[in-house]
Amino acid sequence: MSLIGTIETSWHKIPLGSGRGGSGATEVDLILVTVTDDDGATGLGFTFGLTGGAGAVKHLIDSDLTALVSGTPLDHWPASWEAVSSRTHRLGRGHALPALSALDLAIHDLEAKRRGLPLYRHLGVHADTVEIYGSGRATHQMDVTQLIEGTQRYVEEGLRAVKLRAGALGAEEDVARIAAVRAAVGDGVRLMVDCNERLDLPTALWFSRRLAELDVYWLEEPLRSDDIDGHRRLAEQTGLPIAVGEHLLGRFEFAQYLQQGAAAILQPDPPLCGGVTEWRRISAIAEAGSASLAPHFLPELNIHLAASVPNCPYVEHFPLIDDVLLETIEIRNGRAVPPERPGHGLLFDPDALHRYAHLK
After folding, report:
1. Which residue of 6, 170, 186, 315 pairs with 299 in a disulfide if CB–CB is 3.0 to 4.6 A?
2. What is the count of structural domains for the chain?
3. 146 and 81 both lie in a single domain
4. Which residues touch 252 (CB under 8 Å, ≥6 apart)?
5. How far apart are the first and last CA of the chain?
6. Residues 241-260: pLDDT tens digits?
7. Looking at the predicted structure, is the pLDDT value of residue 236 above 70?
8. Using one digit for the tens of pLDDT, what is the confidence trace for 292-331?
């Protein structure tokens, strides 16, 4: 019986260019976690932060989580996951679940490698490829010509859906920008719109009605993520599908949205929401609530999870940590293809990690 042995972490600060979405973040804190079992096999997990707090997450892994799980049987990981969740519950989910997520990803990577299987085959295959939508070529700083060019490049590359950003320039201007993109690409391309929590309810109601006229597929994070009732009212009054999830942590927060009819598309982020273990629970909750999943960020990891469940029609093409990867997601005819290497298969560039190492 293999036991969890050493757990090592590293912290990297990766600068973000101007073409990295609409959150306004200028860098991403990447926390890598390497788990080694007593046979010498390793698994790599990670979490990230866009708004600070990464040091607290790293410290939690280095101290409490390492002490809790080191020496425990690898095949008892589901029980260990619950033990860690219980012991850190009073800390709140903001630090505890990202820390547990990184450890959980490392354990699943290790288990898949021990079986010699890519992660999606280790979990069980529902699909060999998953459609991918373009998301990294639309920011508030771009003018309309640049937005159109970015969308058209995605279409030329075979993608059939593209996400635009809104909420920072005023609703009327955003409608005009989105309308110009729709006119340029025609009706054969699905458009999604992400507001990054920037609207109030009256503006969101007006805005969503205009988006419906432009045949927008979903409206993402129009309001603050803790305003579940506002999202419910918006969904009821406009009928436009609402997508949420990058700021939600754990299955209970996602369940509240479904129970209130406040979202139709859930976007859990595995390095934040509880890892593979919790992500798959969220998938089951979504399936029971007639919702679909479209995981947030990082298609190189998310392709494995999306291919392992029956209700995940999309992964997101977004270059969050491309600068430290040796290989990015393979796309064939608009669909993401999981790598066949054992584990999750992410290949990190050691030189880039060294360059962005944060020595604390």
Report:
1. 315
2. 2
3. no
4. none
5. 35
6. 999 999 999 999 999 999 99
7. yes
8. 999 999 999 999 999 999 999 999 999 889 999 999 999 9
- What interhelical angle do 275-288 and 93-115 show, nearest 10? 100
Q: What is the span of the domain harbouring residue 26?
A: 4-116+350-355
Q: List the beta strands (DSSP E) in 23-180.
A: 27-37, 42-49, 130-134, 161-165
pTM over 0.85: yes
Q: What is the CATH number of the domain that holds 62?
A: 3.30.390.10
184 and 85 within one domain = no
Q: How far is the C-alpha of 247 from the C-alpha of 98, rounded, in Å?
A: 11
The CA-based diameter of the chain, rounded to the nearest angstrom, is 62
Dihedral sign, Cα of residue 198, residue 201, residue 207, residue 208: positive
**53 and 147, same domain (yes or no):** no
- Do 275 and 108 touch, CB atoms closer than 8 A? yes
Burial of residue 340 (number of CB atoms within 10 Å: 0-12, 13-18, 19+): exposed
Smallest CA-to-CA distance from 130 within 294, 352, 5, 268 is with 294
